[in-house]
Design a protein that fits this description.
This protein is of the alpha+beta class. The protein has a domain of 102 residues: Alpha-D-Glucose-1,6-Bisphosphate, Chain A, domain 4 (2-Layer Sandwich). It is 39% helix and 19% strand. The protein is built from six helices and five strands. Strands 1-2-3-4-5 form a five-stranded antiparallel sheet, covered by helices on one side. The chain starts with a helix and ends with a helix.
């Protein structure tokens, strides 16, 4: 009898934790000015922007193809594309950091390393913390490492943000589906 009660409590706790963990980002308020008051118009807008949910999509055997990978984050993709010529030393999507390995264009004694920290997933000017380090070596064991001053950080940041905004626009167009209304969905 006691074992049955413990089992029921355990199952109840598991269901509650699963339900709460599936709430992506918690409950946030929305700006009522951005959404139409008519429910049918709200549904139409959400489906056209790719935010709709249909049970038939969830249970289809072919799969919907909507996954939350790092490649679906426009800022992340733009950063990787912008520094794709450099070897990567560490990449952590969950931690929000990309660190390249030392890179040199010629047989010079100077090489650079780039560190990009993601402060937010939104495409905006304060979303990235980019640091570029310079290493000048006289011999293999005699190197001076310092943060590299100059225009390269703002130029790289601008390139990443522009590319990310292009990717975000392409993603919105890809997710666009015209709304057919309630009557047409029951077919």
């Amino acid at each position: 009898m006691i074992l049955l009660k413990i089992l029921k409590i355990t199952i109840l706790m598991a269901l509650v934790s699963f339900t709460l963990s599936s709430c992506k980002g918690g409950f946030k308020g929305a700006d009522a000015r951005k959404y139409p008051p008519n429910p049918e118009e709200r549904v139409k807008k959400n489906i056209e922007e790719g935010r709709g949910f249909r049970l038939s999509d969830s249970f289809s055997m072919g799969g919907s193809g909507n996954f939350e990978f790092a490649s679906s984050n426009p800022l992340w993709r733009a950063t990787l594309d912008s520094i794709s010529f450099m070897p990567l030393a560490s990449v952590n999507y969950g931690g929000g950091i990309i660190i390249t390995d030392w890179y040199s264009t010629n047989d010079t004694d100077e090489s650079i390393k780039i560190s990009v920290r993601f402060l937010t997933n939104e495409i905006r000017s304060d979303a990235l913390d980019i640091k570029i380090f310079s290493r000048k070596c006289k011999t293999a064991s005699n190197c001076i490492i310092s943060e590299k001053p100059g225009k390269i950080v703002p130029e790289l940041e601008l390139k990443i943000l522009r590319t990310a905004s292009i990717y975000a626009k392409q993603q919105k167009v890809k997710n666009f589906r015209p709304y057919k209304g309630f009557d047409n969905e029951r077919d």
